[in-house]
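Target chain:
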Amino acid sequence: MGITTALWSFALVVGLLTLTPGLDTALILRTAALGERARAWGVVLGINTGTMIWGAASSLGISALLTASRLAYETLRWAGVAYLLWIGLQMLCGQMLRGSGTPGPDPEPDTGTGGFGAGWRRGALTNLLNPKVGVFYVAVLPQFIPAGVPHLPMGVLLTSVHVAEGLVWSAVLVAFARAIRGWLRRPAARKLMDRLTGVVVVGFGLRLATTD
């Protein structure tokens, strides 16, 4: 398999993965729909930063430790579970408290660097604390590295394809969310958005906790 064939084949595989609705989609849509544009792009770039780190680590063979070491995998898995449950319950409990008239936790305001930085941290942590992303790269990435080609440069090139597709799809999601932002600014719509996103995030956390 040549380099060009490997790139096109990998683009098809990760393209289908990118289009599949999941945790990343939910976080991006919610953040953008609430009018937090800088923070939404922070989430997008944080997620893709995590993807690039996983890709480079897989190319170097570092993330193979997740499949070789049960302790390493379990430690990362439960850290991911705790983080997902925390942000999911924060969304759900915040809506309950606001609904009862009691001030509840609300996302950081979309002001300057703070909004972008908060989004980047959330996106990066969500991605890096998901060991399944690392296992995916360990299992899939080596199959697309042609024989005789240096692993690290080729692995980074392949991961860049994934990141590029992720950025394009994220731009579509952000544009869609901003198009319906007027409707989503209504208190009832925002409550529904936060509840749905919170349920999705908690669901992913519980799935990660119960999946071996």
The longest helix spans residues 70-99.
